[in-house]
Fold these 4 entries.
Entry 1:
Amino acid sequence: MELTKIYNDFFNSEKAGGLVLIICTVFSLWIANSFLGPHYQAIWNFELAGHSIVHWINDGLMAIFFLLIGLELEREIYQGELSNIREALLPIFSAIGGIIVPALLFLFLNYAEPTRSGFGIPMATDIAFAIGILSLLGNKIPLSLKIFLTALAVIDDLGAILIIAFFYSKGIAWTYLLIAIGIYVVLIVLNRLRVTQYMPYIIGGIAMWYCMLHSGIHATITGVLLAFAIPYGNGCSQCPSTKIQHMLHKPVAFIILPIFALANTAIIINSKLGDILFEPYSLGILLGLILGKPIGIFVLTYIAVTFKISKLPENVDWKMIAGVGMIAGIGFTMSIFITLLAFSDEAIINNAKFAILMASLVSGISGYVFLRMQSRKIGFQNQKAKKHTDDHNCTCGKYSK
């Protein structure tokens, strides 16, 4: 019961958070392309303590977002879809397919280009937007499909985090890195000693973030590492991990991610859209998210089920898996985040963000329409089956008389 409540709270906050993200993105695009555009961008580029505001958002606030992802992953491992290895293998396989195929499509189009460093952009799924779109279908789809998408997206985010750690970190400053590792060891020791007050972990996490920021490894990785140092216990509402998770849900959904969207979607839409979208990196992003995601997810899921490595969730069929694959093509937050790490040219960053928005829009609409059509078919078939049962019962009644 407690786990169901946690999941429902998470699902509801992500659903509402996705709608807020849409509003913030539309507002940011509108104002960036209005006469107020230069002033709007100047706000985010304002220098504060040696860094721009947008830099503090992307390296600071987003570490809190990654902490929440880490806590969600920890919950899934201990009590959720990933706690049973056989059940966990399906979303793991699906996520791997959704990571590898988009990256290969991008590299195929950019292998001879300097933009090949953007291969990680189409790998990511935006969990807030994806769940927000799926939630619009309400009870027309089974709860097991929503849980499957959540597990898939969490694993997908973990894959993106590993890609950031291994491929998008700068030269290593070993002194800072070793200090960060030392702090993390202390936090793990506190975990083993069953220290359940969460303030030592928060203070240690801030110190570790500072060292990571200067180490050359992207500072947001601190959030995920910290999540696994915080004691999980039995997952009850009084455990430190669950407490912090509940504390962060609404601030992340309604403050941090909207601020990230406002700061990073101030995209100047060029009149030459055709030229922008046919750039190799734009095509890689578009094809990776729109085609690569659903193909990769479907194929690897099919392999896992065919070879009896795992099985489909209850009440879920292959058409639903295809629909979820489409929705998983919504990249947004993580894709934009990786774009900022992969490229340094402002024009390329701007165009890549626009391609991400277009791909996410197409993926979200196509996935929603496809699953809605399937839900109607299922409803029609259920009505026919009910009518047949009613007619049969009526006939039997007449016969008995």
Entry 2:
Amino acid sequence: MTHGRIRDLLEADHARLSDLLETAGSGAAVDLGVYQRFRGGLLRHIGMEEKLLLPAVRKVRPGVEDPRVARQLKLDHAAFAALLVPTPTPQLIGKIRRLLALHNAIEEGPDGYYAECESIVGQDADELYARLKMAPPVALAAYRDGAKQVEAIERCLLAAGRE
């Protein structure tokens, strides 16, 4: 395996998602078509981490992950999921953008969480890389708006220490 393929794959997905979010929110109104691609892509990316990457690390070396980092990632993922429920607005996109910057900083780079995970899985990296590449798209629910969604977002951001 070429060292860094998993990290490269996931970081490239971060860049793709950031580009979609910027495009969706760059005008006076949110481009809902582009935002839907971002929304589906971010949920797929979260699934890749939660269902493939983190379990692969736990399988190879149970208890090796830094519990603070793993907890922060899970709290951030919950906040992202909550942020993706309501119809997007420029304000909502701003919150997502800020959370992405904080979250991605934990995962990216030669000393980031992705590099650490790739090192831990070692000889299983090729199989994990293939599984990550094949991760299926996520079915998207309709937007839900209202006070409950706003409260859920605020609770999740607060729990993640991000608001």
Entry 3:
Amino acid sequence: MGNLSGGEIVILLVIALLVFGGRGLPEAGRTIGKGLRDFRRSWNEAQDALNRPDHPSPPTEPPDPGSAPKRLLE
């Protein structure tokens, strides 16, 4: 998205005022804000799920045979 100059922002605000009216503009702003917040939260959760390993990494050294658990039933 490009940078918006001051004149372009004023034009967008006038169009929004004409479309939503003076009373509907704050409600539209709140709705858009909630939608963006939910989208950002979902995006962050998806990124966390993708970056989280499903399985722990295997140990780099083999375990000591003397520390292996003993079988209960032989």
Entry 4:
Amino acid sequence: MRLTNKALGAILGAVLLLAAIPAGVYLLTPRGGSVRVTVAGREYGTYPLNRDATITITPEDGTWYNTLVIQNGTARITTSDCPNQICTHTPALTPTTIAIITCLPHKLTVELF
């Protein structure tokens, strides 16, 4: 069976449309109501952005710490005892941010949820 260019174009268009649907759903899904904190891939906690809070993130053995400050609908790491301090220099997360805060020495991530 031989397909015409018109039929191939229709099939290709359908495939592209089907591939675009999940991306569209992801991009249009509201995000940013909360931040999720994970340590070494395990969830540490989820915190709403509409409630100001200061959370000290530390493992059970207390060998390190990071301070997460949620204030005025933003979340940022303000202090850490890691050697490079990249996490403290990362801009705050806001409901419109497409970003993540990481502290690689502590295997910590803060992401919008």
